[in-house]
């Protein structure tokens, strides 16, 4: 990796840390950057998951005020995220790399669709007025999102927000804070497993980690003031670039 490539990875980490905290699609920025500097798809995905863990934790800490009063909800849903992350990580390293290369473009398309419908999901969340707290369906939905995140984390946060938007009545910022905690643990658990069962590009991990910590704090401070339409536009462009890169490798 050249110096300029290393700088690009750090900048991508900053951007991803901020996007993950506010929207939840940072992998669509960092994953294609890692591909562009020469890492194979599975190595790039594994290293990306590890590298973004500090940023996810940084974003969760930045939203700590919105987490007050949600301890019971976290205790109930965190096991679902952890179990899902384990399943997703095991699938990543047991399925052949050709399967990953075939599946990931489809997952990126799904992620991009989720990013594009984020305003609608936000309105659904904001308009809910019932006392429903999700129940078993919410637990299963968070588990499924954890499997997705353990295998390939792009737009995992958007997926979690969409599930909660349909099933839970709560303020958007509080749900965003909860989303940051759940996705942070998915990345953390999957990342720890990857250390023992997969090839990791440690330089990429360190560069992403440094950038994502800064980005997580920036995202938490700016929060909803960031122009979502601009973020979505950038994410879509980068995601399409990732699809093209994967299909032409």
TrEMBL record:
<keyword id="KW-0813">Transport</keyword>
<protein>
    <recommendedName>
        <fullName>Probable membrane transporter protein</fullName>
    </recommendedName>
</protein>
<keyword id="KW-1133">Transmembrane helix</keyword>
<keyword id="KW-0812">Transmembrane</keyword>
<feature type="transmembrane region" description="Helical">
    <location>
        <begin position="184"/>
        <end position="208"/>
    </location>
</feature>
<feature type="transmembrane region" description="Helical">
    <location>
        <begin position="137"/>
        <end position="164"/>
    </location>
</feature>
<feature type="transmembrane region" description="Helical">
    <location>
        <begin position="77"/>
        <end position="93"/>
    </location>
</feature>
<comment type="similarity">
    <text>Belongs to the 4-toluene sulfonate uptake permease (TSUP) (TC 2.A.102) family.</text>
</comment>
<keyword id="KW-1003">Cell membrane</keyword>
<dbReference type="GO" id="GO:0005886">
    <property type="term" value="C:plasma membrane"/>
</dbReference>
<feature type="transmembrane region" description="Helical">
    <location>
        <begin position="6"/>
        <end position="39"/>
    </location>
</feature>
<feature type="transmembrane region" description="Helical">
    <location>
        <begin position="229"/>
        <end position="248"/>
    </location>
</feature>
<dbReference type="InterPro" id="IPR052017">
    <property type="entry name" value="TSUP"/>
</dbReference>
<keyword id="KW-0472">Membrane</keyword>
<feature type="transmembrane region" description="Helical">
    <location>
        <begin position="99"/>
        <end position="117"/>
    </location>
</feature>
<dbReference type="Pfam" id="PF01925">
    <property type="entry name" value="TauE"/>
</dbReference>
<dbReference type="InterPro" id="IPR002781">
    <property type="entry name" value="TM_pro_TauE-like"/>
</dbReference>
